[in-house]
Amino acid sequence: MALDEKTLDALLAENRTFPPPADLAASANARDPELYARAAADPEGFWAAHAAELDWFRPWDTVFQWAPPFAQWFVGGKLNASYNCIDRHLRTWRRNKAALIWEGEPGDHRVLTYQDLHREVCRFAHALRRLGVKKGDRVTLYMPMIPELAIAMLACARLGAAHSVVFGGFSVEALRDRILDAESHVVVTADGGYRRGGIVPLKRNVDEALKECPQVKSVVVVRRVGHESLDVMVDGRDHWWEELVHEAPLTFEPEPMDSEDLLFILYTSGTTGKPKGIVHTTGGYLTGTYTTTKYIFDLKEDDVFWCTADIGWITGHSYVVYGPLANGATVVMYEGAPDFPARDRFWEIIEKYRVTIFYTAPTAIRTFMRWGTEWPAKRDLSSLRLLGTVGEPINPEAWMWYYHFIGKERCPIMDTWWQTETGAIMITPLPGLVTTKPGSATIPFPGIEADVVDNDGNPVPPGKGGYLVIKRPWPSMLRNIYGDPERFKAQYWSRFPGVYFTGDGARRDEDGYFWVLGRIDDVIKVSGHRIGTMEVESALVDHPLVAEAAVIGRHHEIKGQAITAFVTLKEGAQRSEILAQQLRDHVAAKIGPIAKPDDIIFTAELPKTRSGKIMRRLLRDIAESRQLGDTSTLADASVIESLKKVYSTEEEAG
Ligand code: 7RM
Predict the structure, then answer these.
(1) For ligand 1, what atom is nearest to the CA of residue 530?
(2) Contact at 8 Å (CB) between 563 and 588?
């Protein structure tokens, strides 16, 4: 778990609370205290009323159908996500409103109004159609944070194809696996993207990946970097984006999609080595992201909304693209890193565009804390009125720092708990209604029924830890794991039959507030990025010198969790710092730099139970220098002593 018991007790003892600012409470989109009770009494009615705020080509016949664990929402309804994010705003003055304000890392920028976005999405939808993309196909997008990524997503949605966005930081092999699993025939990429002054050679990675993806017929390339060395195009397969859209018509009829038609797949890490393709469908996902954005971020017509997440993650899908655009908001999108060219880059962007709502991750906040308050102090942050955090538990110190130095004690903080699988925010304050407590995501969003239960599925009393579960289906929940319904059932619906199992541990306090502790499975959050320990283990044992590996997440001041790998080598292999570095690079090549282990601990043996299972709990205890838990099931108790010794010497050395 990300927080140990002691820290948690300190959190629960922490009794500073922050009621909604009076002006916000008076004007908030959600300001009726009855909202919660009404939604609880009739969740379907609550969701249907909000779904009705979207534009439907055909109304639904049935709000909700449940054949556990398969849910359907707004059955029989027809709509198009691109139409809802763009066309419906063109009917009013909003057509000239900035939809996307994009800031490139080197300082270039572009503004697209809703009318501009419409034109670019239509033109790219034509381009995709010319390449043979049809309704129901899956298109893989492997792109930097540039407007073309949002345009490509919306163009897919417009013609009825599902997108599968692969984070630009993933390796060739990770990309290959995701293209193959989604059975994409078309990949959209860029020659490169900028990161901390360097260039990520995305197209080159695509070329490598496609050596093993014979089904891919076309690659579309955005010219972002424009280096000759990156201009290697394969005849008949590769097309420059700008040439494809050059003569394309300016309008494209949106495909009327069934509410339950696939909108996108997004791969995420789970408890096995194989990432799962999380399936989201059109009507429910759009209803969830639209409603949560409207109420949690309290979007008003003149807000400037900035979510710093990369679109390669669910947070970017839901709160850079679909949620804000469905609300007709102005969205800031940034390509690069928070410290390039300088450590005030984020604050500079807030000042430059007068950002009013800012949504980022605890790991970023802790990094800013370490850099010092002089960086935000240099910039005018007075436009801000609301702050958000997501991705991992936020420690109260970071919460208070954010509140004080960024929000200047004026801005409420929305600590939002949710997952790739939930599609939209699930546990969160509402800025005009809920008193916040530093470190708590507070209470479930209206219409969401969450609980903390014990091993048998019974609710635990206040203050007791347990499993975080969601007790009834919600519109934006995942519908399946792409191509693997058995895994879908086993992963989410078997631990407690009929109830959604989140994989997180949590507690509730006397006020019913939720305190999320972190993952209780083999998933870890490193700087807010979700990584499966099994993925890292398979990458390690893939190295010719590695016999066995066990990977765990240990507490880390800035990243939340860090990756520690315990590795046993094959006969004859020599332990060395050089080999440790090679293993780190090997993992980066197999998965991506985000999965690089922070520590590699060589050991002669791994602690195992008599039945041969690796005891990760003990490894976690060792890595976090805790009092060891029960070791009575250990097959060979001496393993622990030698491991502890190895670990402490490595620690001193490192
Ligand atoms: C949105 C996202 C999901 C996991 C989830 C938690 C952790 C996310 C919070 C949080 C405590 C939060 N999707 N998590 N938000 N833990 N407080 N506000 O992160 O699929 O990548 O990860 O992230 O463990 O299960 S995700």
Answers:
(1) 21
(2) no
